[in-house]
Amino acid sequence: MNFSSLSNAPSATKGPVQSGLSKRDAIDPARRFFLAAGCFCLACSFVTPVLANAPMLKSQAPGFYRVAVGDFEITALSDGSNMLPATKLLQGDPARIEEALKRNYLGDLIETSHNCFLVNTGGKLVLIDAGAGSLLGPSTGHLLSNLRASGYQPEQIDELYLTHLHADHVGGLMAEGQRAFPNAIVRVDKRDTDYWLSEANMRAAPAEAKRFFEAAIASITPYMRAGKLAIFDGNTDLVPGVRAQTAYGHTPGHTMYVVESRGEKIVLWGDVVHVAALQFKDPSVTIQYDTDASEAEYVHELAFADAAENGYIVGGAHISFPGLGRVRRDAENAYTYVPLDYSQG
């Protein structure tokens, strides 16, 4: 607006008074505008910014994320996270491991996700892994709350497939002394039940390893007694569109689950990867928790190569939540993990 044009506008009558207005009312419109604005700003200066003292909430949104695979819906569910002492547990060239951690802005301790995956086939609700429950402290054990937040109840789970019987995958089978998934059939590879449910193996294990056996026995036994444990052996079709695929090495019966619908595919890896920043570039890096490190390394190579060649989605139990992405083979014949872009659905 050109305020000078207002002050120079011709008067309808001569003299200081027009249509009964006083001299005070006849003040220049531009001056009236700025006087009013100044008064408003002065008033604003006395308002206290009360929002500046709002407390920090220090919590995240509920941990679930959905993706469609053909006619199926996959929901990634967070069981939480905890700190992994990477330099202590990872097996490989220490200098290369340290350099890779620094390159990815990581230190000796890495916050590691614990992810489970719910497969809704339209006819069945299948949960892959049960999280840690109360076995690893308060930073994990959030599967049930996130399952409910995602719109499902534990009683609705028809089938529960375990990638293996480590504590962070079976602890959530029990809640407050009861089966957390009372209507679910729990399925697991025979090699893992033979190994981890054996009291003879537990007695022969080093003292620091006995807790793995104790966790497996305490978590699986109530389902066994209820007639809810079903053991399979190797590559097995389970429900239409979902099959077990052997990935032995991390544990004797470690298993991946392949989900396919209408030509689309996702492979739920379990513990093929623990530290994505290292192991995709160097599949030879293993972890102390591997029962057979050489076999685990072979599974890394096989899983990465197949995913890169065929371009399907993979889901990792310990890849940063939601743990969903694809694998790309780089020019130097190394692999890169490519997380899925966020989608509103």
List keywords for this structure.
345 residues, alpha+beta, Metallo-beta-lactamase, Chain A, 2 domains, seven-stranded mixed beta sheet, 11 helices, globular
Output the CATH topology of the largest domain: Metallo-beta-lactamase, Chain A
**Percent of residues in beta strands:** 25-35%
* Element-level helix/strand string: HHEEHEHEEHEHEEEHHHEEEEEHEHEEE
**Radius of gyration from the alpha-carbon trace, in angstroms:** 31 Å
Instruction: Give the overall pLDDT as a whole number.
Output: 89
Spatial strand sequence of the major β-sheet: 1-2-4-5-6-9-10
* Tally of strands: 18
Shape: globular
Helical content class: 25-40%
Could you give the distance between the termini? 47 Å
Task: Please identify the top-level CATH class of the largest domain.
Answer: Alpha Beta
Number of domains: 2
Mind telling me the CATH superfamily name of the largest domain? Answer: Ribonuclease Z/Hydroxyacylglutathione hydrolase-like
Biased composition (Polar residues): 1-11
Keywords: Hydrolase, Membrane, Metal-binding, Transmembrane, Transmembrane helix, Zinc
Domain Metallo-beta-lactamase: 113-318
Transmembrane segments: 33-52
